[in-house]
Request: fold
Amino acid sequence: MRLLWVTAEGCTPPEAERRALEQLGGFSTEVAIGPVLALEDLKNSTYDVVLADFPISGWTPEEWLEEAQRVNSFVPVLIRHRDASLHDAVRLTKLGAYCVLGADAPVAELAQVLEEAVEDRRSRELALFGAALAQEPWKRFLVGESRAMKNIAQIVRLVGPRRSTVLITGETGTGKEMVARALHLVSGRSHFPMVAVNCNALAETLLETELFGHVKGAFTGATSQRIGRFEQANRSTLFLDEIGDMHLDLQAKLLRVLQERELQRVGSSETIRLDVRVVAASNMDLPERIKQGKFREDLFYRLNVVPIRMPALREHPGDIPLLVHHFLDKICRLEDVASKRISREALDRLSSYSWPGNVRQLENAVEMAIALSGDKQELNPGDFALPPLGQCRPVAVGVSPTIRVPEDGLDFERTVSRIERSILDQALERTGGNKKLAAEMLRLKRTTLSAKIKSLEEAPA
Reply:
């Protein structure tokens, strides 16, 4: 569990308390020196709970609590104040603090309250998710309370009822088809089934008849008429997955269908009018495919009316607990087995992994654990086949190992700064701007990373 410990400037938490919290509650502690840095951490990283030690010069607990809730209203905040009275504790609790403790509270009590705060947060997450499903059933396809998932949900809510074509991009396993299903369910077309086609699963000639259909005798083996997927999706939604793999000749025919909203079956001259909402998806960099001459630019702009980028799971690790509980409930119901729980240790273990296969890999891991757990009621870390703790995918930062010194020399400090900036920029890009994950990727402390970024920003260009 990730704990953000906020202290006054010039103060650090006692090392004995940090070790005790790690042993008693399994907390991974990160210290924020000063309330401003703490607010920045809350904005850019994911934490399970916050512990703020007061007094802090220039800030009252009320002021900092208000700012912290504005930045992240979902993380429970515990305030420890050496001068807090009962009246202060009641007031701060009403303002949103999870608990107010005195400075002399035993570390065992502190660990217990922190654990209770984390469990309370997880319970609230599940309750909110359940309430959201009751009001908006399409949200069952979009599990998560992170900023990224909330932004996607807002796009789906606004665009779903419309006819606009949507292009969903993202790594394999991030849930692109789930977004397509959410778009379909929130639309007025949901009383007809969504039709899905995987564009890289068929050869070009087969994909053409799969999409547009054919008449009897159109080619050797066409012994009967076939209705294509576009016609099947009339008045509904057609999901074109892995659109980047489509052959250029077929891309041209698809473009015409999208522009004219009509088609001709293979071997026929009859024009068929269509009312189809198209949602396409790709795990490829389509602009790069355009540069390579492998994807039509005009088709890209026709598809990319409303773009949605699905984040990799490592970019929103705070959603992992919600996803795990969602998969536990879903798989147990599908397999008709008794509901299972997951231990705190197992949930923390899953939350600490980088998940290169994204949400699909996480779901498969939960399904395997359920299948192999037998009659066990609770899943533990040993039920999940994961690499050793802390192991992540190696990341190539793309920096040349050799720097050539020109005849007239070079500016050493400026050259080193450029290399540092390149490494930091690439790590932040790969982690979606998440400084905590970037620091872990570069084997740095979070505070060290922040200091380097600040130093580079202040340095002359």
Q: What stands out?
A: The two ends are 40 Å apart (CA to CA). Confidence is low (pLDDT under 50) at residues 390-401.
